[in-house]
Specification:
Blueprint: H1 5-13, E1 22-30, E2 34-41, E3 46-53, H2 60-74, E4 84-88, E5 95-99, E6 103-105, H3 114-130, E7 133-134, E8 143-146, E9 151-153, E10 160-161, H4 183-186, H5 195-211, H6 221-230, H7 238-247, H8 259-270, H9 281-289, H10 291-303, H11 307-321, E11 329-332, E12 347-350, E13 353-356, E14 364-365, E15 374-382, E16 386-391, E17 398-404, H12 405-411, E18 416-423, E19 426-431, E20 434-435, E21 439-441, E22 450-455, E23 458-466
Antiparallel strand pairs: 1-2, 2-3, 3-5, 4-5, 6-8, 7-10, 8-9, 11-23, 12-13, 13-23, 14-22, 15-18, 15-23, 16-17, 16-22, 17-21, 18-19, 19-20
Length: about 475
């Protein structure tokens, strides 16, 4: 191995003395950006896991992520977290010396012991949360079980430090392992990352232990992303199933607040005590399965509820069909990305339109706040697995419209006109002049802004106007 030129360079660069600091004993694993070696620390006389950033990967962002991993874990002291002994992010290449864990991943542990192991691992994650650190890439491969039966959480390379303003992931950048990623990660919303994001991953692992399969699967990455955002996992029976489903809630506010709460409820189940997670109930399950149908049904029910409701409905229809004489004023006219929040990475201006440059670009959001106005968005969509538009006119949750693959196929081939009409707390929408049912969704759409996101295919935003 030491005949490899790159390995010889690592040995040379890791040493500030004639004798190398680390003696490489063999590879333990590798990823796209780093290699992990079994090594002997000659200064301290012990074996370690030595993580070395790959040659040719020394970008500023990766070096800062490496530095962040060292900072994040160096301050943690917990029996269920891999210990970091030493690090040098300024070396060339950067390196990280960690506790050597001779073990196997959680997925290969004794099936009968996995629930108890996951509970212990969650205690380690809870220690990270208490220190203001979100792991962001929890999965069975990152939980190693030692020969003595102790789980160790490692690989904090994507860790998010809650009390820092430095954010290495631009809006729209998806980080994590897809099968265990929370909806807010899939949508590329770094501002929504919190300990509840890790709780989702713990819930996904618990679900997999109980059901023998991940909670959400897809035939392609785009399909998996779409399903994570809009579909709920199949129900599970029993208290442990309720714990998993609470952790997997699409709304972070309804999950456990941090890994410690998740671990506590899982421990209650293991002790034969009642868990705090409550079953959703027949009504709740029906509502989740039929969100869109219920919305349409509620509008129909309101129309027959009484004469007053009928008159109100007719008045709205007259308003919709009556041409509005007010002129439209352009917010986005295809010449600049300045009207949008944040970084426009993943989008480009092309022939007077804003076009996604990658299959899963940043979820874009306007800077302009709207209030009691009409907002018109002109667009062309093609081959999306998922497409959504949301607007928030008041301090209440945002109103959104979502299209799945089949609905996008019906939109393809022509320019479409989507209009939101906001009157205080009342928001309505039309697509090419036809009413659309709206879904009420919570943050992060900022007050008074328009938000749109796309998975796969091509989305061309031709114009955004108000009146």
């Amino acid at each position: 191995m030491e005949s490899d030129p790159w390995v010889r360079r690592v040995l040379r660069d890791l040493s500030a003395h004639e004798k190398p600091r680390f003696e490489l004993l063999g590879p333990l694993g590798e990823g796209a950006t780093a290699v992990v070696h079994r090594a002997r620390d000659t200064a301290l006389g012990r074996e370690v896991a030595l993580k070395v950033l790959r040659a040719g990967k020394l970008t500023d962002v990766l070096r800062e992520r490496f530095r962040r991993e060292a900072r994040a874990v160096a301050g943690l002291s917990h029996p269920n977290v891999v210990t970091v002994y030493d690090a040098d992010a300024e070396a060339d290449p950067p390196w990280l010396a960690m506790e050597l864990v001779d073990g196997r991943p959680l997925s290969e542990a004794d099936p009968g012991a996995r629930l108890a192991l996951l509970e212990k691992a969650a205690r380690g994650v809870a220690a990270a949360h208490a220190a203001g650190i979100v792991h962001r890439d929890l999965k069975p491969a990152n939980i190693l079980v030692t020969a003595s039966g102790e789980p160790k959480v490692g690989d904090f390379g994507l860790a998010h430090v809650l009390d820092t303003r430095s954010e290495l992931t631009r809006t729209g950048t998806t980080l994590g392992t897809p099968l265990y990623m929370a909806p807010e990660q899939v949508e590329g919303r770094p501002e929504a990352i919190s300990p509840r994001t890790d709780v989702y991953a713990l819930g996904a692992m618990l679900y997999e232990i109980l059901a023998g399969r991940p909670p959400i699967v897809g035939e392609s990455l785009a399909e998996l992303y779409r399903r994570i955002v809009i579909e709920d996992p199949a129900p599970l029976a029993g208290d442990a199933g309720r714990v998993a489903l609470k952790a997997l809630d699409k709304d972070p506010a309804r999950r456990y607040a941090h890994a410690g709460e998740f671990a506590d409820d899982l421990r209650r189940h293991l002790n034969g005590e009642p868990v705090l997670a409550r079953p959703l109930g027949a009504t709740g399950r029906f509502v989740r399965r039929n969100r869109r149908a219920l919305l349409v049904g509620s509008l129909a029910a309101a129309a027959v509820a009484g004469v007053a409701a009928l008159i109100l409905s007719l008045r709205r229809e007259v308003e919709r069909l009556t041409p509005d004489p007010r002129p439209w004023t352009a917010v986005f006219d295809g010449t600049s990305t300045a009207p949008f929040m944040g970084n426009a990475a993943g989008w480009r201006l092309e022939d007077g339109a804003l076009v996604n440059a990658i299959p899963h670009p940043a979820a874009m959001q306007t800077l302009r706040t709207f209030g009691d106005v009409d907002v018109r968005l002109r667009f062309r969509a093609e081959k999306q697995s998922y497409l959504s538009f949301r607007v928030r006119m008041t301090t209440q949750a945002g109103w959104g419209i979502e299209f799945d693959r089949g609905q996008v196929q019906e939109l393809e081939g022509a320019e479409r006109e989507l209009i939101f009409r906001g009157r205080g707390r009342e928001v309505t929408a039309t697509l090419d002049g036809k009413p659309l049912p709206l879904t009420l969704r919570g943050p992060p759409v900022a007050e008074g802004t328009l938000h749109f996101s796309s998975v796969g295919g091509s989305l061309r935003i031709l114009g955004i106007d108000v009146r």
